[in-house]
Known about the structure:
- By secondary structure, this protein is α/β, with parallel strands linked by helices.
- It folds into two domains: 3-175, Rossmann fold; 188-407, Rossmann fold, CATH 3.40.50.10300.
- The protein has helices at 14-26, 45-52, 68-75, 86-93, 100-107, 120-124, 126-137, 163-175, 213-224, 253-264, 307-317, 340-351, 391-407, and strands spanning 3-8, 30-35, 78-84, 112-116, 141-142, 146-149, 155-159, 188-193, 198-199, 205-206, 228-233, 246-249, 269-272, 279-281, 301-303, 325-332, 355-360, 371-378, 383-390.
- The strands form five sheets. An eight-stranded mixed sheet has the order 12-11-8-13-16-17-18-19, sandwiched between helices.
- Helix 4 crosses helix 7 and helix 9 crosses helix 13 (391-407).
- The radius of gyration is 24 Å and the shape is elongated.
- The two termini are 44 Å apart.
Amino acid sequence: MAQVVVGVGGGIAAYKSCSLIRDFTEAGHHVTVIPTRSALEFIGRATFEALSGNPVHTGVFEDVPQVPHVRIGQQADLVVIAPATADLIARAVHGRADDLLTATLLTARCPVMFAPAMHTEMWEHPATVANVAALRARGTVVVEPAVGRLTGKDTGSGRLPEPGELFALASLLLERADALPRDLEGRRVVVSAGGTREPLDPVRFLGNRSSGKQGYAIARLAVQRGATVTLISGNTAGLDAPAAVEMVHVQTAEQMREAVDKHAVNAEAVIMSAAVADFRPTTVATAKIKKGADEPDVIPLTRNEDILAGLVEARRDGALPPTTAIVGFAAETGDANGDVLTHARAKLVRKGCDLLVVNPVGEGKAFEVDNNDGWLLTADGQEIALDHGSKSLMASRVLDALARLLDRPPNA
């Protein structure tokens, strides 16, 4: 159980902090909520106390014998500020300690994550831009806001990401404090995720068990590490789009190939984590196939193009820049011809990509679950074990390797 401090700034998005607090408490963490005085104009103290199970204070002169303005920060394992208003960010940058929350920020030596929420003009103002840069330079995580509906009729960048996404990022920081460096700043990354569906008739399709969770985690973290991300998504059973990501939705393997080819041209890295169908029905019935005399004995299949191998070939032929980093995924099982790593090594050679993420699959492994493990194989022969943990943790390890690859001098 971790000691988590949830700071709440005074903005309309404060209502989302209630779901975030519940997520932390249901995960078994001890939660201390510290709202600003203006936050209490939006959400009452009783709500925060009921959700966290702990008293809620705003000033440094409350509960004085416990010295909360020092003790809370000293004991915290994680501090999350959601929403973080422009005013609160500015006060944090200048080291103000005029309420319990800003005083706590000065004493905290754990990971600190700000989740900004404000109108687009405020987010893009040079003062806020400079303040965010200052916080990041000190090692503070400042989450990229979502793009969407703001207060009133306004729409744009500055929307608070959904509580589930903030909880995933915060939980990752508890797993790995250094998981969100800004080492992909300015990079353009394409990520594919989810499973494809190959239609058989207007009702049925051939598909697979991919949930898309791993690819979405990669896209989410790549944005927070500074990249501009295009996420090409197949079927994901309703996952929410990560904040600040360009979404492209597809259904079939052919649509996936066309989208990847289109966006890869302008990308510095392509991460193919989607579970793309190897085969599709040769013909698609225009009406539902009925049981009975007309039902087919055999459904002929046609092999789909290998998107990953096609990317490598395009790079070799000059259709993609020679510096484009290509990352593949392999869901493998052992058999009579070899174990998981044996098949993965052969696949890396056959595909020709720079990195191959290998996941052992089976009951309760890889597909439709929240955790993952496996290996990361590199073209130069390294085999890095990816310890069991959340899919966000695995995504962070994959992006570590990608950042090193992108920073490598040409022809190195």
